[in-house]
Amino acid sequence: MLSRICSATCLGIDAYLVEIEVDVANGLPQVAIVGLPDQAVRESKERVKSALRNSGFSIAPKKITINLAPADVKKEGPAYDLPIALAILAASGFLKQDELHKFLFVGELALDGSLREIKGALPVAHLARRKNLSLVLPEANLKEARLLDNASIYTARSLKQVAHWLNGEEPLSKVPYLEDVIHSEISSKEEFDFSDVKGQFHAKRAAEIAASGSHNLLLIGPPGAGKTMIAKRVSSILPQLSRSEYLEIAKIHSAAGLMSNGLPSLFRRPFRAPHHTISQIGLVGGGSVPRPGEITLAHGGVLFLDEFPEFRRDAIEALRAPIEEGWILISRAKMTFLFPAQFLTICAMNPCPCGYLTSSKHACRCSMSQIQKYHQKISGPILDRIDLHVEMPAIEYQDLVSQIPQESSNDIRKRVLRAREIQAKRFPRSVGKTNALMAVSEIRKYCTPTESGKKLLEQAMKELGLSARGYHKILKISRTISDLTESETIQEEHIAEAIQYRSLDRNWFG
Fold first, then answer.
1. How far apart are the first and last CA of the chain?
2. CA proximity to 231, closest of 262, 263, 274, 267
3. What gap in Å lies between CA 51 and CA 328, rounded to an integer?
4. Quick check: is 424 in a domain?
5. Which residue range(s) make up the domain with 316?
6. What is the average pLDDT value for the chain, to the nearest integer?
């Protein structure tokens, strides 16, 4: 007897429909799984056998063939356990098959028949809603399931409960959409605040500009100057997530299996800080079946690269296109994956290998060749893509013990939000677009300085030897600075401040 049941597989950050066919026939007792299954899927037959037996179902010893279609797409993970078990029950006459085509089933089975949490529940829920199917998934995925509105979703604790429900013997709880929970979590308090940062007013100003216009930021300073402290607080001055942004970020984290610890962290802008030993694939994504890397997990938030020159050269260079385009394209023989990667890059580095080149309190132990080699780890094209370059001095004792209240993240965020509102009016057709994302034609349209500003910019181009990209960066930064002052025109002082953040091009890396 033959049965068919719908399930799903996650490829990248999206879910795709998988049809599970089971044929139960007379012959030597065996279970065969075909359709390009990985090891976890092949092992599912042992889990399913035990789960069926311990749930009270006695399956006759027959030849069971399980096909996962489409057969040319690799199937990974244990989420097929539940649909395979249900398809075997249906093919063996334990379940009614009339209504099975209306549902999509996913879930990992324990040996006692209980259902365990799966990763990728949110992309699967999106797929079920798009295909107009009702989704049945483990109760452990309830938090993710209730984030999606206009979806028909049921949760279950065990295989036995699902089987009884399909036969009309027991009800399943339908998942309600709880928007109030989303809003209450979105408004939760920030963990880090700029009021904790003593001194470093120039760096804090650069962080404000970076947050206002989505400009990438490079912090250069000795150990203990506060580079990491400032980077961790940038997400606290970024605009709060909109509902659509939040759902997109939650979908990415769900596909990556990062939702098991709960949801609250997803209601703030993501902050990812990979270690400098990370591989290129770990940073930008990839693999035989491509998975999102750190840049995609940072989508909508901040990617912090501490000890920037210590990252592998191939990993650093792989950031070129994502920083510029806001997405990463990963191609494989059979499929191409497009992962979102719209993030604010913050890089931090020491001025030299020992860290004390600019310090007045510690003698630098590095030779000139060591310093040059250290700086050369960052290529010109990558440096060109980082808008703001800030040199941070060591914190003075007077600043450290000062009792003068520092400006809070909430105060800075108000100015950032006002600048973002101005940009939203400037780009009404592009939701969330900021000054850093302006095309060349838009720079010509919106970034025209005054005559004195043009002269200053021309002088800077000659003295600093800036590239065309560097020239455009200064115009974009000055546009953001003028937005922060709510000025319609780009004044000379706006250009002058913007040039400050590009002058390290020659001093450090020229």
1. 74
2. 274
3. 41
4. no
5. 192-405
6. 91
Same domain, 143 and 234: no
Q: Which of 23-27, 173-177, 398-402 has the lowest mean pLDDT?
A: 398-402
Residues 223, 360: one domain?
Answer: yes
Contact 350, 221 (CB under 8 A): yes
DSSP 158-178: BHHHHHHHHTTSS--EEPPP-
Q: CB neighbours of 409 closer than 8 A, spacing ≥ 6?
A: 190, 192, 193, 194, 195, 233, 236, 237
Distance CA 124, CA 128 (A): 6
Q: Are residues 337 and 249 in the same domain?
A: yes
Place of tokens 């020491």: 350
pLDDT at position 16: 95
Number of compact structural domains in the chain: 3
Q: How far apart are CA 418 and CA 212, in angstroms?
A: 9
Cβ(218)–Cβ(254) under 8 Å? no
Query: Residue 354 contacts by C-beta under 8 Å, 6 or more apart in sequence?
Result: 364, 365, 366
User: 179 in a domain, yes or no?
Assistant: no
Confidence grade of residue 267 (pLDDT, cut at 50, 70, 90): low
Give yes or no for a cis peptide into 239 (omega within 30° of 0): no
Token pair recorded at residue 124: 């699967």
Q: Is residue 183 part of a domain?
A: no
pLDDT at 387 over 90: yes
CB 304 within 8 A of CB 348: yes
CB atoms within 10 A of CB 367: 11
| CB distance 226 to 391 below 8 Å | no
CA-based nearest residue to 18, from 127, 111, 149, 93: 127
> Alpha-carbon distance 70 to 68, whole Å?
6
| 245 and 380 housed in the same domain | yes
In the 8-state DSSP scheme, what is residue 190? Answer: P
Q: What mean pLDDT do residues 335-356 have?
A: 94
For the beta carbon of residue 67, count every other beta carbon within 10 angstroms.
16
